[in-house]
Amino acid sequence: MLKKSFICLLILAALGLVGACFMSIYTDIAFDEEKSEREQVVIARLMQIRDAEEEFRKGHGGEFCGTIDSLVDFVKNGRAVVKVDEDVWTDELAESFESKRAAIDAGKFRSDTVWQSAAEKLGISNPDSLKYVPIGKSGATFQLRKHEAFNLKSNEFDKVCEVRAALDDYLDGMSAKKIRLLKQDLKKRGKNRADLFEDNADDYEGEWYGLRIGDLKDPQNKMSGNWE
């Protein structure tokens, strides 16, 4: 009888161990799946911001929009170039006029720009939402900075921009332990991390993790994403 009870206890212990292993694996898979889903939502918003910055640059001499609020204002109230219809600038016109502007003023050359609202061209129905991280912590916003970085290849300063979504913001509400382990893994692999912006220098962790487009220190980045 005692032997049977002991065997039953061993079976229960084994089943408990199997169950614990299964739940550990299941929770890891569930965390990774939800993390991936949230990242895709954030990436989609970052790509909208990138498109808006590129549209802004077209009409502002290659300058980036310097704050997320001013970028939202541009999308809400700005105009974007749809197309430019021009007559052919011929050698004959070039000899007769010092510039296209002079030829236009003389009625010898036509240049018509077709405009559209920035929001309509970009397909953004709610421009105000552009500044907010779309999932996770309520009210969390994207961090946007612009700068000039020295390009060693061209020996010139290039205009650069960087937009960030913090991992702690878009994974807010998920397992704090798994987020901590995730950061440790990212740090080990040197992935999806960066130095803090100066205004976050007192952050207790001393480093930043998340998704971003652009790189203030790399003029070759060309607003690519750190997930690409």
Please provide a brief summary of the model.
By secondary structure, the chain is α+β, with helices and mostly antiparallel strands. It has helices at residues 2-58, 68-77, 91-96, 100-105, 118-122, 167-170, 176-189, and strands spanning 79-86, 111-117, 143-151, 156-166, 193-194, 208-214. It has a four-stranded antiparallel sheet. The protein has a two-stranded antiparallel sheet with strand order 1-2.
Care to describe what's here?
- The protein has helices at 2-58, 68-77, 91-96, 100-105, 118-122, 167-170, 176-189; strands at 79-86, 111-117, 143-151, 156-166, 193-194, 208-214.
- It has 228 residues and is α+β, with helices and mostly antiparallel strands.
- It folds into 2 domains: 38-80 and 125-228, no CATH class; 81-122, no CATH class.
- The strands form 2 sheets. It has a 4-stranded antiparallel sheet.
- Strand 3 (143-151) and strand 4 form a beta hairpin.
- The protein is elongated.
- The mean pLDDT is 83.
Residue-averaged pLDDT: 83
Topology order in helix (H) and strand (E) letters: HHEHHEHEEHHEE
Bulk shape: elongated
The largest β sheet comes out as: 4 strands, antiparallel
Cα distance spanning the termini = 64 Å
Comma- or semicolon-separated keywords:
alpha+beta, 7 helices, elongated, 4-stranded antiparallel beta sheet
Secondary-structure map:
Elements: H1 2-58, H2 68-77, E1 79-86, H3 91-96, H4 100-105, E2 111-117, H5 118-122, E3 143-151, E4 156-166, H6 167-170, H7 176-189, E5 193-194, E6 208-214
Antiparallel strand pairs: 1-2, 3-4, 4-6, 5-6
